[in-house]
Structure formats: structure tokens, C-alpha cells
Amino acid sequence: MPAKTALVTGASSGIGEATALELQELGYTVYGAARRTDRLAELAERGIRPLAMDVTDEDSLQAGVKQIVAETGRIDVLANIAGYGSYGALEDVPLDEARRQFEVNVFGAIRLTQLVLPHMRTQRAGTVVNVTSMGGKIYTPLGGWYHGSKFALEALSDCLRLEAKPFGIDVVVIEPGGIATEWGAIAADKLEESSSSGACAPQARAVASSLRSEANAKRTPRPASSPTPSERPSPPAAPGPATPPVSARAR
Ligand SMILES: NC(=O)c1ccc[n+]([C@@H]2O[C@H](COP(=O)([O-])OP(=O)(O)OC[C@H]3O[C@@H](n4cnc5c(N)ncnc54)[C@H](OP(=O)(O)O)[C@@H]3O)[C@@H](O)[C@H]2O)c1
Known about the structure:
Elements: E1 5-9, H1 14-25, E2 29-34, H2 41-45, E3 49-52, H3 58-72, E4 77-80, H4 95-123, E5 126-131, H5 144-164, E6 169-174, H6 183-195, H7 201-211, H8 214-217, E7 248-249
Parallel strand pairs: 1-2, 1-4, 2-3, 4-5, 5-6
Antiparallel strand pairs: 6-7
Helix pairs in contact: 3-4, 4-5, 6-7
Bound molecules: NADP nicotinamide-adenine-dinucleotide phosphate.
NADP nicotinamide-adenine-dinucleotide phosphate binds at residues 9-16, 34-36, 39, 53-56, 81-85, 104, 131, 133, 176, 178-179, 181-183, 186, 216.
């Protein structure tokens, strides 16, 4: 049987980049998608196939799916990971920016899923992984549009799970906590753009500084080769940090 195929969005950075590498180590043929294709060069050197894709651009979504099916004949895993945090007080964030937040975090992921589902249905198998956030379950001040987008993706994923199950397709939701990627600095920039001079400016400064803090703003270097599953340490017996780094759900 040919290798299974995975499409990973957000592959130019952070969680998506790590996921693409992990899936490749598991034996998948992996397509890593992002807008910044220069940032996919390192992955390409390691055998991951780069795809130029803006999840808000219909043509690039269609072209990407078409290319994968033409080259491999299948799509077994779709990992919707592309996303960003549009932080700012609800009073301050321009609605165009709010719409953009939903275009990327919600409509981009769901539109790509719409394009992939017919292929998974033909295979009568497949897994759609939607990376939401703990912020799709809980909320914080100045994160309204981000939380709204992630709550929405949670609900859509839960409905999709029921619709896709009869066709052998699983829908998995991953809800990360704070992970050291470029996400924090981007969210802080958005927050300062929107709210640094409004009524919430003092709070915005404090939240921006926290978003830029060590936990969120630094890119985590990946080791040259990651451990195989058998080499990995066992999970700790007791819960670790107060904020768990990730949770996953697939009923
Ligand atoms: N880091 C955290 O603490 C954390 C916590 C909970 C949830 N998450 C979620 O995890 C996901 C990945 O975040 P991350 O932490 O890995 O952030 P990151 O390092 O900033 O990576 C974000 C990725 O999304 C891609 N992206 C953004 N806009 C895009 C667009 N319009 N079209 C295509 N790709 C786009 C970026 O690629 P290009 O810019 O090259 O297109 C990049 O590869 C996001 O959905 C985020 O909300 C992160």
C-alpha cells in the first residue's frame, strides 16, 4: 500500500512545522502549506513537500488539494493548524480585522476541509485535525475575536465529527495551551495596533508584555532528530504545570 498522505497548514512555523516533521517521521508523505514558502525550505530538505497556500485564498486552496490528489491519489490526514491571534479590545478592533481573524482561523480551515472531505469519503477513511486552543474553551480580556474564532472552530468541529463519522472519517480537536512559537509576538503586535491608545491602553500594555514573555515569544528550536516514540520519556505521573500544554478530543 502506498504511504499515507498528510496535508499540514501552518507548516512554516511553530506547531505546524513540528507536526509536519512528526508525521513525516511516522512515514506519511507530508505536504507542508504556508504563505511564506521560503520558510518551508528546511522542511523541503527533509523530504516534506512545500505548498504555497493562503488559507483565505480559494484558488490556492483548490490548487493545493488538486496537486496532492494528482501526485499521491489520496489525502489521509488534514491538519488545520494555520492561525493567529487577533488581540485587542472589542471596542477597538476594526471589523475588517475581526473578519480577517475568522477568515483565517475559521473559514480557511473549514473551506479546506470542504475540499478534502470528498477524497476522504471515497477512501472511506481519513482524519481531520483542527488545532483550536484552550482559548476555545476559556477566555481572557482583550482576546475576544481570537476566542470567538476558536470557540467557533470547536463547535464546527464537533458538528463535523457527527457528519463525517458514518463515512469512516474522524475529526480531532487539539487544544494547546501556551507553546513557545511566533504566535505570542504576532498577537502582541495585533493588540498594540488596536488598543495602545484606547480606553483599555494600560491593560493592553500589560497583556502585550505578557504575550511577548518567554513562554510565548521565542521560537522553540527543534532537535536535529526527535526521539522515536519508544525513546520518549513516559508522561509524568502527576499533572505538571498549572496550564497543560495540550489537550486532544476525538469522540
Ligand atoms: N502557540 C500557542 O501558544 C498556541 C496556543 C493555542 C493554540 N494555538 C494555535 O495553534 C496554531 C499554530 O500556531 P503557532 O503557535 O504554531 O503559531 P505560529 O508560529 O505563528 O505559526 C502560525 C502559522 O500559521 C500560518 N498562517 C497564518 N496565516 C495564514 C494564512 N492566511 N494562510 C496560510 N497560513 C497562515 C503561518 O504561516 P505563513 O505566515 O507563512 O503563512 C504559520 O505557519 C494557531 O491556530 C494558533 O492559534 C497556538
